[in-house]
Amino acid sequence: MRKGKLIVFEGNDGSGKTTQLIKVEKYLKEKGYKVLTTREPGGTEVGYRIRKLLLDPQYKMDGLTEALLLAADRNEHVKNVLIPALDEGYIVLCDRYILSSVVYQGIVRGVGVENILKLNSIFEDRIKPDLYIVLTLDPEIALQRIKMAGKNDKLDLEDLEFHRRVYSGFKEVSKWFERCVNIEAQGSEKEVFEKVCREIEKLFESREK
């Protein structure tokens, strides 16, 4: 039985999930937990190179190609980062995991949800998140945030319809997965953080019972 816990942050671009992950990292460290933050893609050296390829606007690729590259990144990440950290008792905070593949490639890119789940079943068999926190924000507001931040990777440059489909996708898939909580990120950063912390505290309370 592994000692640590895996908490995954998911959501549409511009929802503030990475900001909340960083705040939770500080919060848990202050409470005395060993915490490791990581991300997909890009949590390993191999993954970093895959991330650059996937997000570079000059490279247009089929959705299945994206899914296969993400699966390669995930294999390296699970084997070399997630499992070792969890075995050592870390609380691992991961920025994106399998839900993102289901939404972006399975639904939005048209690869098919069942195909993505089959491709990722090897990872689900080896490691399941203890909690998925899915932050969703109205795509028009989220897109405004992205533009204000000056982001310009391939996903950030997609049109509003794309971001609407991503938003709807996360709202839907958050109902399918166990240990998955959807938090609408309409409020202030502090208000959203308080909601996130409540869900994390529930996780630790259930572990202590």
General description of the model:
Helix content is 57%, strand content 13%. By secondary structure, the protein is of the alpha/beta class. The protein has one domain (5-208): P-loop containing nucleotide triphosphate hydrolases (Rossmann fold, 3-Layer(aba) Sandwich), CATH 3.40.50.300. It has a five-stranded parallel sheet, with helices on both faces. The two termini are 16 Å apart.
Low-confidence stretches: none
> Strands of the biggest beta sheet: in what spatial order?
2-3-1-4-5
* Multimeric state: single chain
What is the string of helix and strand elements?
A: EHEHHEHHEHHEH
Q: Give the overall shape.
A: globular
Largest sheet: 5 strands, parallel
Number of helices: 8
CATH fold node name: Rossmann fold
Helical proportion, percent range:
55-70%
Number of domains: 1
Radius of gyration: 16 Å
Structural classification:
alpha/beta
Average pLDDT: 94
- Percent of sequence in beta strands: 5-15%
CATH second-level architecture = 3-Layer(aba) Sandwich
Give the N-to-C terminal Cα separation.
16 Å
Superfamily (CATH H level) name: P-loop containing nucleotide triphosphate hydrolases
Number of DSSP strand runs: 5
What is the class in the CATH system? Alpha Beta
